[in-house]
Amino acid sequence: MAQKIGLLGKKIGMTQVFAEDGESVPVTVIQTGPCFVLAKRTVDRDGYSALVLGFDEKPVRLANKATMGALKEGNMKPQRFVRELRLDQAEVEKYQVGQAIGPKDVFQQNMPIDVEGFSKGKGFQGVMKRHNMVGKPATHGTHEYFRHGGSIGCRLTPQRVHKGKRMGGHMGDVKTTVQNLQLFRIMEEENCILVRGGVPGGINQYVVVTVAATRLKYKRKGEGKEEVRSKNPLKASKKAAAGRG
Questions:
Q1: CB atoms within 10 A of CB 101
Q2: How many domains does the chain have?
Q3: In which band, very low, low, confident or very high, does the pLDDT at 100 lie, cut at 50, 70 and 90?
Q4: What is the pLDDT confidence band of residue 154, given thresholds at 50, 70 and 90?
């Protein structure tokens, strides 16, 4: 299944910027370039069409012979983060091996994007934090079982724990995708983009940023609606006093 074009990047952190109307907007800074086209997959040779992108150059001494052999065609340097983006054959033909791609070549301001990454790891957690269980009643008759998960099965039947039973275990550190975020601003000189809202992962973690798969135009909930005036005279007078009436 073909997906939309995108770039590889690294999450730098979060900050806030001001829009043209003075609104304070929380944004995530993602460095999305330069990304290099390391190879191309074709239907005739590989059975599918895709672009192989690389990001964040690493020393040659850290690359094995197989990696260096795959980079001979474009005389490229090894990259730390390499991913395939499956695209239509016509889209793949637009790019050449060895070509450097930046955010200005792929994205536009205020367009919706999808960001894929690994969520923050939370370590081993119990059933209350991991599955939102309520726990045992905190009464005088309960001892040492306040945060326990309770029964996990029967004795004779079925003589085992069912698959998928909600229990304590490793939480977080899973691949997740946040869809339809707003690309608020493109910083071309720094090869960075400012994304409205939070994206998965911690600081300096690699992410894949692609054009949104399910939306052509970004629109926030409630955006463009006229504010409904309150019928409460007390609230109306407060707004008038603040200069917002």
A1: 22
A2: 1
A3: very high
A4: confident
Q: Is residue 136 part of a domain?
A: yes
Please state the length of the chain: 245
- In tens, the pLDDT along 34-62 reads 999 999 999 999 999 999 999 999 999 99
Give the separation between CA 78 and CA 51, rounded to whole angstroms.
16
Give residue 120's Cα distance to chain centre.
11
In a domain, 150, yes or no: yes
Tell me how crowded residue 55 is: count the other CB atoms within 10 A of its CB: 23
User: Cβ atoms within 10 A of the Cβ of 40, count?
Assistant: 20
Q: Per the domain annotation, does 104 fall within a domain? A: no
Count CB neighbours of 92 within 10 A. 20
| Mean pLDDT of the 201-223 span | 89
Residue 92 parent element (H or E):
helix 89-92
Domain limits for position 126: 122-171
pTM tops 0.90, yes or no: no
